[in-house]
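QA checklist item 7 of 12: single-chain prediction sanity check.
[x] sequence parsed
[x] length recorded as 462
[x] structure emitted
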Amino acid sequence: MSYPGYPPSGYPGFPGYPPTGQESAYPPAGQYPYPAVPGAFPPMGGSAYPGAPPSSGFPGVAGYPAPGGYPVPGGYPGAPQPGGMPSYPRVPTGPGFGVPAAGSGFGGYPQPPAQSYGGGVPAQIPGGYPSGQVPSPMPSQPAAMTQSYQGTIQAAPNFDAGKDAEILRKAMKGFGTDEKAIIDVVAHRSSDQRQKIKAAFKTMYGKDLIKDLKSELSGNVEELILALFMPRTYYDAWSLYHAMKGAGTQERVLIEILCTRTNQEIRDIVRCYKTEFGRDIEKDIRADTSGHFERLLISMCQGNRDENQNVDYQKAQEDAQRLYQAGEGKLGTDESCFNMVLATRSFPQLKATAEVYAKIANRDLLSSIDREFSGNVERGLKAILQCALNRPAFFAERLYHSMKGAGTDDSTLIRIIVTRSEIDLVQIKQMFTQLYQKTLATMIASDTSGDYRRLLLAIVGQ
């Protein structure tokens, strides 16, 4: 997955690791010396670590590097030269931002609260999936994972499912459809509340709300509204099913979902895929993909990534050395080593590993993946690593490319807006502005029209 404005050879230079003034977080130089054998590591220059590229450093505010070097359409203003790690933008401070009190979380990338970042809707909500089944309630997340990320959609106060069902019924009754009334309801209710509206509608009128909406709507606005009424886990499973159904495979959809979700979300998706579509997701992946990309996706489907938020710096040293020896430090690439590290380590651990790797290889890990891999497995490995460094930036980049150039990838636009609307769309919007010097709402307004545009803008908070 190429990132906008990056040079063809990889990512622009990443400011030196570790953060200036935070070198003590790592074992003292010389404690873990690297063997100076031919082909193993670059010359040491009298130090246990080769010097990182000169830069302004990677500041330690909430784990985010300093702004700068971000792409605008056409390139990065003042970007460093290729061969180093990109400087990911700092997440703004203020309400809903920053490091959680209980710990640093994902290296300063706090995870959403359990109630809004779960693997599906709570089990008590009736009529969640088409088959009537919902995943078991999600267990409480560790304190270190409790986050202050923000969605643009919040649960509506004084919610009345019956009243909303009545509004939707009137909007679709008789000649014509009152799309504005429908938008006012669906864009300002949480996913859980929309499930309750759906159940109330059937109770009150003996009709299926989804079927009524499908009969009244069409095109992109229909796809968007139906996506909003799908429980999140079902929507992810549905998206994966359709990405592999029929001729051809939408590999970017598989990467976007399987490489970015939490363990619990992935387990719920795998279970929902089997329940709702009667198919085994691993078998479908094996039938539709191959090679190292297939193995990476199968690893992701296990939902067994380490989620311990504590960083083991000695392991980061060992993993960084292992990755260097598996790629830059040898002729050819040991793909299984990259798969093992990126599929199993926690996101804070991967971030620490990337920091050490930049010192060992004098090149950032994203750039090395770009040099050692190609195609879908490269995109998948990069997606995992960028989520470890800055998850909102990953989704901002995906949104940008869904609208960039001629035509619009509406399915990607809809999927990301809907699935992130209650998790971190506030941060994604801010990263979008910092990356591309324009707001997400501005780009949506110029690329869409009609009720579809109005509903998208309502969801993103415009």
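[x] summary fact logged: Residues 6 and 368 are 14 Å apart (CA to CA).
[ ] second reviewer sign-off
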